[in-house]
């Protein structure tokens, strides 16, 4: 034996360390068999997988149960400039997302704010029914003058922010873990705070000024796992760390398409194709195509899979798209990992 270790496949994710994307990557792959590599932006994760035809992956956020679709990811999947022609979705993961407000407590506050000032699951009701508790928390946050976070995190915590931090300056950054990193770099005298995970707060030495501040107690984000279609890697195996749909035959497929400008009613006819073949559509999104004004690229998610053997119920429906669309692209099929 020469003592050399086998080369690990790489997994790109939106960093820094302790971001929700990092947590999703850990849940999918772990650290033992894969080399997890943080990226500054979601587009960098796409680019990392496009640049190789090996068994590398990317884990990117696609949609949040409270805030909706992640537009950055949607635009990269639309791929107007054809920068990522070989990328396919090969897996998904649903990650519970519980935000906290992390920062440096004021001199008047105790070091253990997290339990005293938690923002509970029934947050708005708790505040309305317990004015004294609400007033105590508000006083504990009076020193906060700036909040850093990702735009999606701000959107997921609107109730808490409007009640306790209304008018406070918001600074958007590329990830929640980067927000925690910035506040930590400002030092203990900083009047800034970050909306991040408790893990990011702990890693960067911040105190939890308030916990579980998201609007919905069951807030979660769905992540896509991407691969290069030129590799031989198959669909993602189920992670033992997360519950998933028990139906092993349940699959999902993502398709993008554009329509000719005329005649009217073409979108309805395209959707009817899937109904005629007994296929259920679970979501539809659109983004400007930039080909000309008010023209769109549509992305639909369908229950079912595209078979390489050119059979099954999905393949005839895809062939029929040629008769109604200006163009379409298969963006991958993967096992359904919806929470049980």
Helix and strand arrangement:
Elements: E1 9-14, H1 20-28, E2 34-39, H2 42-50, E3 57-64, E4 68-69, H3 71-78, E5 87-96, E6 100-103, H4 123-129, H5 131-140, E7 146-149, H6 151-156, H7 158-164, E8 169-172, H8 176-186, E9 192-196, H9 198-203, E10 207-210, E11 220-228, E12 251-258, H10 266-276, E13 281-288, E14 296-303, H11 314-320, E15 327-335
Parallel strand pairs: 1-2, 1-3, 7-8, 7-9
Antiparallel strand pairs: 3-4, 3-11, 5-11, 6-9, 6-10, 12-14, 12-15, 13-14
Would you mind describing this structure in some detail?
With 340 residues, this protein is an alpha/beta fold. The protein has eleven helices and 15 strands. The strands form three sheets. Strands 1, 2, 3, 4, 5 and 11 form a six-stranded mixed beta sheet that branches. The radius of gyration is 22 Å and the shape is globular. It starts with 8 loop residues before the first strand and ends in a 5-residue tail after the last strand. Mean pLDDT is 86; it is low at 110-116, 127-133 and 237-248.
């Amino acid at each position: 034996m020469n003592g050399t270790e086998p080369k690990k496949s790489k997994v790109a994710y939106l960093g820094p360390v302790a971001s929700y994307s990092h947590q999703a990557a850990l849940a999918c792959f772990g650290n033992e068999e894969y080399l997890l590599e943080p990226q500054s932006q979601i587009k960098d994760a796409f680019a990392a997988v496009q640049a190789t035809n090996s068994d590398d992956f990317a884990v990117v956020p696609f949609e949040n149960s409270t805030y909706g679709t992640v537009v950055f990811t949607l635009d990269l999947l639309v791929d107007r400039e054809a920068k990522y022609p070989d990328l396919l979705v090969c897996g998904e993961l649903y990650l519970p997302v519980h935000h906290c407000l992390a920062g440096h407590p004021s001199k008047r506050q105790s070091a253990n704010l997290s339990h005293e000032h938690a923002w509970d699951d029934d947050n708005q009701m708790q505040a309305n029914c317990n004015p004294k508790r609400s007033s105590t928390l508000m006083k504990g946050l009076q020193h906060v003058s700036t909040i850093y976070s990702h735009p999606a995190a701000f959107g997921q915590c609107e109730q808490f922010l409007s009640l306790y931090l209304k008018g406070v300056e918001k600074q958007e950054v590329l990830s929640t873990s980067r927000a925690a990193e910035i506040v930590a770099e400002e030092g203990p005298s900083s009047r800034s705070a970050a909306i991040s995970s408790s893990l990011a707060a702990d890693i960067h030495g911040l105190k939890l000024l308030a916990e579980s501040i998201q609007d919905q107690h069951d807030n979660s984000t769905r992540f896509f796992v991407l691969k290069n279609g030129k590799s031989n890697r198959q669909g993602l195996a189920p992670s033992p760390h997360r519950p998933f749909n028990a139906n092993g035959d349940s699959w999902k497929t993502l398709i993008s398409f554009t329509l000719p400008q005329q005649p009217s009613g073409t979108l309805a006819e395209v959707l009817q194709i899937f109904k005629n073949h007994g296929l259920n559509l679970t979501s539809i999104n659109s983004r400007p195509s930039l080909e000309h004004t008010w023209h769109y690229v549509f992305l639909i998610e369908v229950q079912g899979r595209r078979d390489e053997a050119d059979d099954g119920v999905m393949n005839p429906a895809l062939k029929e798209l040629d008769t109604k669309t200006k163009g379409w692209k298969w963006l991958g099929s993967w096992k359904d990992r919806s929470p049980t």
